[in-house]
Design goal:
The protein has about 130 residues and is mostly beta strands. Helices cover about 0% and strands about 50% of the residues. The chain is built from no helices and 11 strands. The protein is globular.
Length: about 130
Amino acid sequence: QVQLAESGGGSVQAGGSLRLSCVNSGYPLNWGCMGWFRQAPGKEREAVATYAFGRGPTFYTDSVKGRFTISRDNAKNTLFLEMNNLKPEDTAIYYCAMERILGSACGDNWRGPAGDSGSWGQGTQVTVSS
């Protein structure tokens, strides 16, 4: 099974930047879908950005377009989320996820892995103050 470990969260003021990292370990990860999700207090978890192996970024939620960038360094087994011009509404726990699905399914309809089809990280808190 693939294990995922996020880091890079923290507290920043509005307009600031953070870079989240998600390192995978365990079985080699060279195909499928990875992405960042977030969940704010009292709200449902939402997909923020997704990345398909062999295709690159496949989805950004509208609220982060132009501000966030998802990328992958295969040599470092790491998925990144570069977050710029952060806003208070970006405050949430951010989760990394992966699932072995076709690249065509890695996009706005992906809800993250269910059961044993993939993995979730433990989450990292991002807090943006006004």
